[in-house]
Amino acid sequence: MSSQLQDRAVLAAYDYCRDLTKREAKNWYYGFISLPPEKRRAIYAAYAFSRECDDDADAQGSPEAKRSALAHTRRRLEQAYEGSTDDAVLVALGDAARRYDVPRAYFEELLAGVEMDLDISRYASFDDLRLYCYRVASVVGLICLQIFGYSAERAVQYAVDLGLALQLTNIMRDVKEDAERGRIYIPQDEIRRFGYSEEELLAGAYTEPFRQLMAFQAQRAWSFHASGARLLPLLDVRARACTATMQGIYREILQRIEAADYAVFNGRVSLSGRDKLGLTASVWLRCLLGSGTRQ
Questions:
Q1: Domain count, the chain
Q2: Model pLDDT, residue 194
Q3: How far apart are alpha carbons 144 and 242 in whole angstroms?
Q4: Do 153 and 65 share a structural domain?
Q5: Burial class (CB within 10 angstroms; exposed 0-12, middle 13-18, buried 19+) of 164
Q6: Which of 60-64, 80-84, 130-134, 244-248 holds the top average pLDDT?
Q7: What CATH number has the domain bearing residue 224?
């Protein structure tokens, strides 16, 4: 293939990932739109691959079939890094990985995290849950950080903590939906510590012990949000605006959960498109003016 045709194929692959991201994850699409085009395309390629990993785990079929699909995705990931594929997502991912020196190990960790959902539906302690959150969320932040670029080594730990903050917020928001699938991500030892029970959670029992349990989860999430916010000053203004926007959305979700006194069984807490647009505009303005974000 000539260099010109190859360049066209790569750009077409990036366009495919961009369109997939816009269709399936508007938060990601609009959240990173202020990045320079090359970095924005790389972020969309990373999202498209992570989406395929999630789809492998969420597809209909037996756990064995899902494991087989994930094993196939691991082989495809190898092809992406070798440059021996014509699959649009993998062509874009391979190009992005080479441009920004994204370690393949990050994507391997992501696959390992997705695979945990095939075998694990309970977590004995936060240490166990933390590994899951690191794999499915923090490594995504590390991939983004690699694409953004950074010089201070402490940025890596802050990116990890920000990923933990977002995933813990997700877990609080999705307690009802996860329970309906037979999953409980809140650590078992903490459920017992607050005098609540697995049976009550699966039944959607909103009690004072549940409220106290969720308040404890929120306190932990806020501590990781605070640490993750220290990443922002270490990024250039465009990457800072993107990251602050994503964090801002999840901070607002967490605040709304608290405002509802943790009554998450009543319905999924979410932000409207208008809410997200207003938050994005506010965050971008603060970043562009150099005032940062509230920490």
A1: 2
A2: 98
A3: 10
A4: no
A5: buried
A6: 130-134
A7: 1.10.600.10
